Amino acid sequence: MTIIAPADCSTMAEVRAGVDETDRELVALLARRFGYMDAAARIKPAREAVRDEPRKAQVIANARAAAAAAGLPADAIADLWERLVEASIAYELAAFDRR
User: Fold this and answer.
1) Looking at the chain, which terminus has fewer C-beta neighbours within 10 angstroms, N or C?
2) Chorismate mutase domain location, by residue (predicted)?
């Protein structure tokens, strides 16, 4: 099935196909993001450097601002990013410990 832009969808099948394709794309982007966590674990000199609260706050603020600019619910996006960043930190710590 060809993926149709949201504004052009006229059936729930089209909507669901679009959502499913978007989810696949999001997972691919998350795989790339977590690859950067592997790189960070390789580059950072000490395990203590993994958790960087000022950087975490900056990443979440950036996501909140981008969401607001896109007309999305900024608080909901910030909540998602909080979970994403915490999952990324846990992943990076595990990667650091493996090296």
Assistant:
1) C
2) 6-96
